[in-house]
Amino acid sequence: xxxxxxxxxxxxxxxxxxxxxxxxxxxxxxxxxxxxxxxxxxxxxxxxxxxxxxxxxxxxxxxxxxxxxxxxxxxxxxxxxxxxxxxxxxxxxxxxxxxxxxxxxxxxxxxxxxxxxxxxxxxxxxxxxxxxxxxxxxxxxxxxxxxxxxxxxxxxxxxxxxxxxxxxx
Length: 169
What we know:
The protein contains four helices and eight strands, in the order βαβαββαβββαβ. It is of the alpha/beta class.
């Protein structure tokens, strides 16, 4: 498990860029956090790391799913906040993307029943006015490798955000 602290949207985007550079088609990233915690801002960074213009990335709250094409393949950005039950979430068909795209799901706790066994989970919490705390964990071999590479990539000085102590589960 890794923990990061960012103090601006720019730092959150930088963290996301690291994740996007490491993600590959079939990566599933499950985001959780309160309204306004920075989920979509992190996705902008993930998109940038995949070669997608971050300015094109908007919250899919009302359309539920947005797709983007980048140099590293397709990014599928889903937001299940407005859906009320597992049946509605299943009806989206997110599983169809799991093997061919990087899939990022906001409010992923509502979609637990859909998540593949192998996924990256990122929890975002407020930590003061402009600060956000990111807790990144992995479920499965593929995702564990991504988190290990993220640990190595952010161990270098000047990553643009503060990595808190490593916690090995």
